[in-house]
Amino acid sequence: MILKNKLTRETLEITYPEFRKRFAKEIQDAFESYRKTQLNKYSYNFKDDNSIEFNFYFELHWNFNYFGNSNWYIERMD
Predict the structure, then answer these.
(1) Is 30 exposed, middle or buried (0-12, 13-18, 19+ CB in 10 A)?
(2) pTM of the model
């Protein structure tokens, strides 16, 4: 996967396991933001955390970029 820094335009090419390890806090922050948004959106249809987490990782590229508060964003996932 290729990540890019919003501030410095530095490019980083890493594997998915490295990404999960190196950006664990940013992923967790993005997930919490995504979770709150989904629970507010579907309050009448409460979803369990497993399905919310599955949906978050299914669209990780978009969710990390838009729900995360990181200087890095995912440019491409291979």
Answers:
(1) buried
(2) 0.85
